[in-house]
Fold:
Amino acid sequence: MRACRPQGRLAPVIEALLPPAAAGGAPAQRPYLLFVRAGTASTHARMIGEDPARNWDCCVSWYVPPQPERLAEIYCGGGFNKLDGFLEFWGEVPRPAPWRYVMIMDDDVYLRPGDLSRFFALCDRHGTRLAQPALRWLTNTTLNSLVRNPACVLRRVSCVEVMAPCFATATLETLLPTFGLTRSTWGADVAWAGELAAQGVPLYVVDAVAMDHTRSGDGRPTAFYRKLRAMGVDPQEELARVRRQYPAFPGPRTLPGGHVYRPELPAALAPAALWLVERMKFLVRLRKKTLRVVRARPRAVLQALPVAVAAAYCRVYHSR
Structure:
């Protein structure tokens, strides 16, 4: 396949990343790309600084006025949301694209030093088509199925989340028509799961690499969600509409098989270890509910705490 030349205002920047033989379709010097939709508190600068031998290029798409930094390889803007911004950028990338894998990340996701490079290498080694890093147990989570299970290297799941999906480039090209299904981006991950399930393509959480979701929102709408509300867009309604388009989607869950277990686990025990950890994830949900109550009613919680401690002491004392 003949490579297209980069087009538009980003053409000189993208072309500079390609080695001299790129006109024949050679890969970029770094084989992977992190695309981050960034505000002023974005984690990308920290991740770049902490991974000097990184195997990934970085494209920063600002949703705020461009910031005075020169850390990433590519800077751009535009688009109403993260997926719109990515489509604008991707339209200027030559074909075949110079990266084998592309992660599209929110700016409040953080991977520890070297972990993103390790994640990309694992995806490439195992030939994943769509995957994401696992979420740490004590970070801000939405779906328990995406929380890390230490029994696995890769765990097969029914869907990944829109906050940090990682696509094999060929798979990304087939899924681009789904990027504009909603204005909120809610439901895009359901569409990806539905489209790939119909093709028999497995989706994975990479449990060998975990990430932090650094902002919880505390139930308060961000500027993006206030803008959606002003437009009359309800993310929940958009999600429901997409789910109706994919009625076979079973909901977020760990699937029964297709996992890659940690090599040090005895093969006979690995499935039981996975099952046990999955059952323990109710603790993640319990912690989340408790924090929500504490944030909503801190004074009431503090007033009730001495009573709860005294009651617990009495139970222990009388059981002796």
User: Anything to note?
Assistant: The chain has two domains: 11-280, 281-320. Confidence is low (pLDDT under 50) at residues 1-7, 21-28. The first strand starts at residue 32 and ends at 38. Residues 305 and 311 are 10 Å apart (CA to CA).
